[in-house]
Amino acid sequence: MNNRLLELYKKIGLYETSKITGIPSYELLNVLKQPLDTSMSKNVLDDLLLDGKLPIYKDINIDIDTFEGIWYLDKKFDIEGDRYVVLYSMATPFWDGTDILPFDTTNYRVYNKKGDVLEDFYIEIYDAVEANGNFKNIEELIKWYKNFYLPHVEMFFEKHFEKIMDEKENFKTIFN
Q: Best label site of 5, 108, 130, 131, fewest CB within 10 Å?
């Protein structure tokens, strides 16, 4: 059966083979032991995340805009008093076929403990790190996600939060 699947995969591609067989893309790649290029890695990570097959890291929420393929993330940080801040960022692995993990924080909100929005701030804080998107197999891709993507996302969230807190003097009414 694997030989037939491999022939079909080579003839019509991953997603058509998946559609015809009903086998998810990531399971096909696992069975066929096929290498992944950057574009395929990004698409397969999308599929894995949407199907709930990837772990979430600590208290970081990840959602995918399936139309644009953008990974939206948010993370909550407690601050003084009865308030907390939620940072909203984008961190799409291998965005646009590149070997880069961009991390772009676009806004944050300050909430009270009841969940009411006290203030909404629009900002632009950007970081990126090189990230090779070529993998020998699906297992390597999943290892990369767990050991590279998630720790870097956590690090960037912490860095961006620290930058916001360093500049909090600009927002004394909210943070005091």
A: 130
The answer to the question of residue 144 being in a domain is: yes
Burial class (CB in 10 A: 0-12, 13-18, 19+), 58: exposed
According to DSSP, residue 102 is labeled E
Residue type, 19: K
Q: How many domains does the chain have?
A: 1
Q: Tokens 């037939």 label which residue? A: 4
Taking the model in full, what pTM does it have? 0.89
Q: Helix/strand/coil (H, E, C) string of 1-43?
A: CHHHHHHHHHHHCHHHHHHHHCCCHHHHHHHHCCCECHHHHHH
User: What is the rounded CA–CA span in Å between residue 1 and residue 23?
Assistant: 13
Range of the domain at 165: 55-175
Residue indicated by tokens 């699906």: 138
Q: What are 128-144's pLDDT values in tens digits? A: 999 999 999 999 999 99
Residue 4 above 70 pLDDT? yes
Round to the nearest angstrom and report the end-to-end CA distance of the chain. Answer: 66
Alpha-carbon distance 154 to 120, whole Å?
A: 22
